[in-house]
């Protein structure tokens, strides 16, 4: 049954009906639509549209419907209702007869859909928060296990300075901590109820919207009805946060794919998250990580798509806005799945600490140490930088790491260099000298692990 037959004499073209209907995707808002309807029925009692007894009958029927939906959400898709709002109302009328037809008094699908979507977003944000924290925990525990594994740190994908695997894990923990705080921040703006704004101008019934908001678990009611029915900032904001976090996860994936490559060989991914080749028997491909990296694109695409849809829309509600759901659902589902998958990937990675260390020792990653050494002996940094550059060129020609050059050899470049240079060129020294806050020194990393654990407890 359509909700709006009276004005029409001709039936809708079937092709238009299919084009217009949104039930095939907005069925996911069933629980929220029912919850919103219960609250609305209570509000209608306060303005004498429903008696207390009528409201109770409606509420009972809605609660039964909620149970049915929870048991089998897919049954909704068997209906040819236009959207989830029509479906719920139709089912309610099936259950309680004409009384069900009173529920939509003073309400519009415009404030209804805005409310449903916000309720759904609030629920989904909590799922995402749990998942974002789980990945951080997995990273911190991985860091803790591998605190002593030294590896090269890169800039421009050139070996730059030695770091530890733990420090690398904690870098991604920081990114996800910011993603977490963005979600929490979004929640604040989301927590405002549009219900009772009617189609656009507000409801004609003197409903206490703050009370209504409270019944639905919102912290307040929105301030302007025109804005309330046409605001989709929450969808954009969550897709934007999803895009940023997916960008983090894609960088995480890319780093790991490289670490797992034959060329680096720093880690080996578990069989549980890799797959084989149909042709090349030796292959074990990092598919989980490649998909995480790849899915970043569709999430970003959903955000861009919705931005374009909303751009230039006149106030207030327009059917264009129905396009908000598929992209949002897909973006948040994808993000959640990638967060879960990131945990799974971290669960049993193997580190080849010997390979990591070997790579850290190559590539003259301790050159900065030699420059700092010269500075300590009174050479101005710019000059020290130049001298070390010359030493490195010569050492590369010889194929010798800095720490294996003889003192006589060093002296050709600077006569301030003495025997005390050697301890400073060791990997341990390279790490532990970086003991200012946030540095790679083992003491700092242990402290960071402790702090992150406390925050995530
Ligand atoms: N299915 C619609 C949506 O998702 C519900 C609101 C429809 N309102 C209307 N006046 N046509 O946006």
TrEMBL record:
PROSITE patterns: FUMARATE_LYASES (PS00163). It catalyses: 2-(N(omega)-L-arginino)succinate = fumarate + L-arginine. GO terms for molecular function: argininosuccinate lyase activity. The keyword Transmembrane does not apply. InterPro entries: Arg_succ_lyase_C, Argininosuccinate_lyase, Fumarase/histidase_N, Fumarate_lyase_CS, Fumarate_lyase_fam, Fumarate_lyase_N, L-Aspartase-like. Gene3D superfamilies: Fumarase/aspartase (C-terminal domain) (1.10.40.30), Fumarase/aspartase (Central domain) (1.20.200.10), Fumarase/aspartase (N-terminal domain) (1.10.275.10). Pathway: Amino-acid biosynthesis; L-arginine biosynthesis; L-arginine from L-ornithine and carbamoyl phosphate: step 3/3. The keyword Phosphoprotein does not apply. Its main location: cytoplasm. Its EC number is 4.3.2.1. Residues 364-431 form the Argininosuccinate lyase C-terminal domain. SUPFAM superfamilies: L-aspartase-like. It is found in: Cytoplasm. Pfam families: ASL_C2, Lyase_1. Keywords: Amino-acid biosynthesis, Arginine biosynthesis, Cytoplasm, Lyase. It is an enzyme of class 4 (lyase). Residues 6-301 form the Fumarate lyase N-terminal domain. Transmembrane segments: none annotated. Belongs to the lyase 1 family. Argininosuccinate lyase subfamily. In the N-terminal section; belongs to the lyase 1 family. Argininosuccinate lyase subfamily. This is Argininosuccinate lyase.
């Amino acid at each position: 049954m359509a909700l709006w037959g009276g004005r029409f004499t001709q039936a809708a073209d079937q092709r238009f009906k299919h084009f217009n209907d949104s039930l095939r995707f907005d069925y996911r808002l069933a629980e929220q639509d029912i919850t919103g309807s219960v609250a609305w029925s209570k509000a209608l009692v306060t303005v004498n549209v429903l008696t207390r007894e009528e409201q109770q009958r409606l509420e009972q029927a809605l609660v039964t419907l909620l149970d049915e939906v929870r048991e089998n959400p897919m049954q909704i898709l068997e209906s040819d209702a236009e959207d989830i709002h029509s479906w719920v109302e139709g089912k309610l009328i099936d259950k309680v007869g004409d009384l069900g037809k009173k529920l939509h008094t003073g309400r519009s699908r415009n404030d209804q859909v805005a409310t449903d979507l916000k309720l759904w977003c609030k629920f989904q944000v909590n799922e995402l928060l749990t998942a974002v924290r789980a990945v951080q925990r997995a990273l911190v525990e991985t860091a803790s296990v591998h605190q002593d594994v030294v590896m090269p740190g890169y800039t421009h994908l050139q070996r730059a300075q030695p770091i530890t695997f733990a420090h690398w894990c904690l870098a991604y923990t920081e990114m996800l901590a910011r993603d977490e705080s963005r979600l929490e921040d979004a929640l604040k703006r989301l927590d405002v109820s549009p219900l009772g704004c009617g189609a656009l101008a507000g409801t004609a019934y003197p409903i206490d919207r703050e009370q209504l908001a409270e019944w639905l678990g919102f912290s307040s009611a929105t301030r302007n009805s025109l804005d309330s029915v046409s605001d989709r900032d929450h969808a954009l904001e969550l897709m934007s946060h999803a895009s940023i976090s997916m960008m983090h996860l894609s960088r995480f994936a890319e780093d790991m794919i490289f670490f797992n490559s034959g060329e680096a060989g720093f880690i080996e991914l578990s069989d549980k998250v890799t797959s084989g080749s149909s042709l090349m028997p030796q292959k074990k491909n990092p598919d989980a990580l490649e998909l995480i990296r790849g899915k970043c694109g569709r999430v970003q695409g959903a955000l861009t798509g919705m931005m374009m849809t909303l751009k230039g829309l006149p106030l207030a509600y327009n059917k264009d806005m129905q396009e908000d759901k598929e992209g949002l659902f897909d973006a948040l589902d994808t993000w959640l799945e990638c967060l879960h998958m990131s945990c799974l990937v971290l669960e049993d990675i193997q580190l080849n600490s010997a390979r990591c260390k070997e790579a850290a020792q190559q590539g003259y990653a301790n050159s900065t140490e030699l420059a700092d050494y010269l500075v300590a002996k009174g050479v101005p940094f710019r000059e020290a930088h130049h001298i070390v550059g010359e030493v490195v060129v010569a050492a590369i020609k010889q194929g010798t790491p800095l720490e294996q050059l003889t003192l006589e050899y060093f002296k050709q470049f600077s006569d301030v260099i003495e025997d005390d240079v050697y301890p400073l060129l060791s990997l341990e020294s390279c790490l532990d000298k970086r003991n200012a806050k946030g540095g790679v020194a083992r003491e700092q990393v242990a402290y960071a692990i402790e702090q992150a654990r406390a925050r995530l407890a």
